[in-house]
Amino acid sequence: MIKRSLKQMAEMISSQDVMITFSETLITGVCIDSRKIEKGNLFIPFKGEHSDGHKYVEESIRKGAAAAFWQKDVPNPPLHLPIVIVDDCLVALQELARNYRKQLAVKVVGITGSNGKTTTKDMTAGILGTQYKVQKTEGNYNNHIGLPLTVLGLHEDTEIAILEMGMSGRGEIEFLTKLACPDAVVITNIGESHLLDLGSREGIAEAKLEILQGLKDGGLAVLHGDEPLLMERIQRLKGNVQVETFGRNESNDLYPTEITQLENGNRFRINASEIEFELPVLGTHNILNALASMLIANYFSIPFGKMNEGLAGIKLTNMRMELVEGKQGEKIINDAYNASPTSMMAAIDLVSNLQGYQRKILVLGDMLELGPQEEQYHQQIGEAINGEKVDLLFTYGTLGGYIANQAKTVLGSERVFAFTEKEALIQELKHHVDNKTLILVKASRGMRMEEIVTALQVN
């Protein structure tokens, strides 16, 4: 993590408003939450609608913070303490991260996409970690606050940083990529998330391709080659950029030639190697995420023969195709972190084709931020459920009700249960599970479907 004197930090953000008596104070790391202060941290307070972090500056320094920023429009700065007065605390955080990035020798991989970016980040870190010292975005620190904090958390001897870049509207990826200055980037796919803000899949593609604007000259862009919206646009945007593609089609640089779905993952072969790879992650769609990671690893001179080692040790972020066991011995696929029509269909397809279970249950909730066609997208999910491969459907939420209503045409009313109260769903669901049951739990993050998984595990 960043280690600089207070004077050096002030210079990095072009602020000279630091008391000279404190200029040599050594800062170790940055924190924006006064409850999580560690000794030597720089505390950065933010002004919110309901609270103001400046109220906690003195407390944070008492807890061990070495110094703090102070926004100049906030009255009564504690000038007796080591503070740096800045125009805007958020801008100062971002500028500090931007200049720290410039001072590091680290190589950066930027990853975005509608679905799969966190899984691809985890896979890329796993493979690159077999040869390099690697750090990656933790949790959901992938926005205009989280990414600067991730950059400032990089150690000076880190060789490769894998940075996830999220967005909700135009211009956000451009800002993040220009701050991170990646050496290589990945766009996992173009889905339907953020249709509410961007209006169309074409708009989403344009927004994701903003990641190229910060890519270093001659750097690598890894794209989902089966997506026409990406391939059409890359021809006019790429400039001096290397482009490599992955996908199912043989027109791609990297594609699977053989896939075997296992109980706890997948086994697959690719066109570029004779090696058989094993991926301990459920869902054949995750093989595509692995291919993107493999192209990045190959760019950084890791041979295909070493990649199985990295794939075997992958540690995915929680609630992404996470296989857990319930109290009755039932197996639960916890994919509750997020959902879009594309990822929902992929998860349903996975459950439909897994063998060895007497009963399969889908527990699906609302998919959010889909715009004016949200009802239609939910109805399409219901229509697509295979009544011969799925036994029961439980839905949660108002939009989930559209899945349920449409699914009744293929499953019948007696096999569909629709709820708007989570506790009622949980109690009914428990009556239908045993140690021969497989359950998929999936919805958008705002639905907090992990509460259903927890209830099945503890009660």
Summarize the structure in short:
With 459 residues, the chain is an alpha/beta fold.
List the helices and strands and how they pair.
Elements: E1 3-5, H1 6-12, E2 26-28, E3 30-31, E4 42-43, H2 57-63, E5 67-71, E6 83-86, H3 89-103, E7 107-112, H4 117-128, E8 134-136, H5 146-152, E9 160-164, H6 172-180, E10 184-187, H7 195-198, H8 201-208, E11 220-224, H9 228-237, E12 242-246, E13 256-262, E14 265-270, E15 276-279, H10 285-299, H11 304-312, E16 322-325, E17 331-335, H12 341-353, E18 359-365, H13 374-384, E19 392-396, H14 400-411, E20 416-419, H15 422-430, E21 437-442, H16 450-458
Parallel strand pairs: 3-4, 4-5, 5-6, 7-9, 7-10, 8-9, 10-11, 11-12, 17-21, 18-19, 18-21, 19-20
Antiparallel strand pairs: 1-2, 13-14, 14-15, 16-17
* Strand arrangement across the biggest beta sheet: 8-9-7-10-11-12
The CATH homologous superfamily of the largest domain corresponds to Mur-like, catalytic domain
Largest sheet: 6 strands, parallel
Shape: globular
Number of domains: 3
The CATH architecture category of the largest domain equals 3-Layer(aba) Sandwich
Helical coverage, percent range: 25-40%
Q: In terms of per-residue confidence, which ranges show pLDDT below 50 for 5 or more consecutive residues?
A: none
What's the CATH first level of the largest domain? Alpha Beta
Count helical runs.
16
Give the number of DSSP strands: 21
Q: What do we call the CATH topology of the largest domain?
A: UDP-N-acetylmuramoyl-L-alanine:D-glutamate ligase
Proportion of residues in extended strands = 15-25%
CA-CA gap between termini: 42 Å
Global structural class: alpha/beta
Radius of gyration: 24 Å
| Mean pLDDT rating | 91
